């Protein structure tokens, strides 16, 4: 697929997504790498734009340079954002009580703490990203392993075999102290994303390094 066609496909998909105002988003394409520029009104729109682009056939990488510019002249104070974030995390049933700390500086939220599962880490970020005044989220929450590396590797490989979208034999898994490294080759970006998702879904996984190539 050439750059012009891929760029137009990205623009069309962004305009088709109802939760994004794509009028001020710029798109360039270069050998499968999409660069997003411009600005949106909320951090949620910025994240959604990236997710939309990831699912498009032919996309191999994304350079995310969109700015968040909240609409209107009123700027929500950091302490108010922090209070709302703490409440949202406290109300979320998937997040263990008193495991996450919140810091806000100029609209940017930083999350710290320790949880047992990666989905709990993701849930914390999802709970605060839609708050008014938020321009970005840094999720520094640690996932603390409570299982052996051998068990983690087996769970990931079993997940690969269950996923109809993946050719499990083409992906190699290495696990050490909660860090998962993926190597191999797949045919599409969505296959690579499925492999990453399976790796993150195993208990005790703290980081995932994805060296899988597409081609």
From TrEMBL:
Signal peptide residue numbers: none
Start and end residues of each BON domain: 2-70, 77-145, 148-215
Family matches, as PROSITE patterns: BON (PS50914)
Record InterPro entries: BON_dom (IPR007055), Lipoprotein_DolP (IPR051686), Transpt-assoc_nodulatn_dom_bac (IPR014004)
Coiled-coil zones: none
The protein's name: Osmotically-inducible protein OsmY
Source species: Rhizobium paranaense
């Amino acid at each position: 697929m050439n750059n012009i066609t891929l760029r137009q496909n990205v623009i069309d998909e962004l305009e088709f997504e109802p939760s994004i105002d794509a009028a001020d988003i710029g798109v360039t394409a270069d050998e499968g790498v999409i660069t997003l520029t411009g600005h949106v009104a909320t951090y949620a729109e910025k994240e959604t734009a990236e997710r939309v682009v990831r699912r498009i056939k032919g996309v191999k990488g994304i350079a995310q340079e969109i700015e968040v510019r909240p609409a209107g002249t009123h700027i929500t104070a950091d302490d108010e954002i922090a209070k709302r974030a703490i409440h949202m995390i406290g109300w979320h049933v998937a997040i263990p009580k008193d495991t996450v700390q919140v810091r806000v500086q100029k609209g940017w939220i930083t999350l710290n703490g320790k949880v047992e599962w990666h989905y709990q880490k993701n849930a914390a970020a999802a709970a605060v990203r839609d708050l008014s005044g938020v321009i970005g989220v840094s999720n520094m929450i640690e996932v603390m392993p409570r299982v052996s590396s051998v068990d983690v590797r087996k769970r990931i490989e079993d997940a690969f075999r269950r996923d109809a979208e993946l050719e499990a034999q083409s992906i190699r898994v290495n696990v050490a102290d909660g860090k998962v490294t993926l190597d191999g080759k797949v045919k599409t970006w969505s296959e690579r994303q499925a492999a990453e998702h399976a790796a993150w879904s195993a208990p005790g996984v703290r980081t995932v390094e994805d060296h899988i190539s597409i081609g």
